[in-house]
Protein 1
Amino acid sequence: QVQLVESGGGLVQAGGSLRLSCAVSGRTFRSYAMGWFRQAPGKGREFVVGISRSGGSTSTADSVKGRFTISRDNAKNTVYLQMNSLKPEDTAVYYCAAGPSLSATSLILGPGGSWGQGTQVTVSS
């Protein structure tokens, strides 16, 4: 079990950029695949982007491909989400997550996965 704390959310204009951070507690950060999900008002939680334990592989949702990039710094126990060319439809609560593995389409969490508390991203038109 790990604790995840997101930061960096806020209000940004359409076309702008924002960088989210997720700080992970403990000494086993490198053993987890990491990812970001989001939940817009009235919608379910959606996978956005994930990264493997080593950082060598990523999975990205079609809706954000070419605009969002995930990275990790294992020395700092931190994962990042760089969001560029933001659109109003990107408005959502963004959640950091940790799980045992990354698939081609999502981050695998299962019952042992962990979630952060979420951070609000609002994109104005």
Protein 2
Amino acid sequence: QVQLVESGGGLVQAGGSLRLSCAASGTIFSINVMGWYRQAPGMRRELVADITWGGVTNYANFVKGRFTISRDNAKNTMYLQMNRLKPEDTDVYYCRLACGSQVYWGQGNQVTVSS
């Protein structure tokens, strides 16, 4: 069983930066893809960015050029570097891990960007 623990959220002024972390623990076999999703109240959870086992990254258009997804395999940790943050980036961000045929979610952490 795999658990994902997120950290790094908080309050930041527009134009600032945050770095989200997602640490995986438990029995991990083959990681197919890891990603970050966001969900605002009343909205569907949507992809922010993900990265495959082969290192291929994918970004939503609304974060492209501002956010960078990365991973540290030795630490089983994934990161989302969030730069030039905008108030509309305010959301709860969730870590997602696809390991083999199974999918795991982090607990979510709040990112709030003030104007």
Protein 3
Amino acid sequence: QVQLVESGGRLVQAGDSLRLSCAASGRTFSGYTMGWFRQTPEKEREFVAAISWSGGTPYYADSVKGRFTISRDNAKNLVYLQMNSLKPEDTAVYYCAASWVSSPSAAYEYNSWGQGTQVTVSS
């Protein structure tokens, strides 16, 4: 079992950059695929990015490709989401999650979730 806590969300302006962090606890952390999702009141929770336990196969939603970068530091039990060129449509609560499924991109494929951190992008 993995416990996750996100941090770093805040109010920023369009075009700004922001880095979110996810701190994990549990002995199986390094063996999990880690993902980032986001959710607004009008939309379902949507996939943003994921990275394998080895850190070598990150993948992204089309809406953030080229702007966001996911990374992890297994030794420190940390996962990051670097967000550049932020847009108002990126406004959402961002969640990190852990999965034992190969190449997971759907929310139901993740077994552990953080509490979320709010990112607001003003125009």
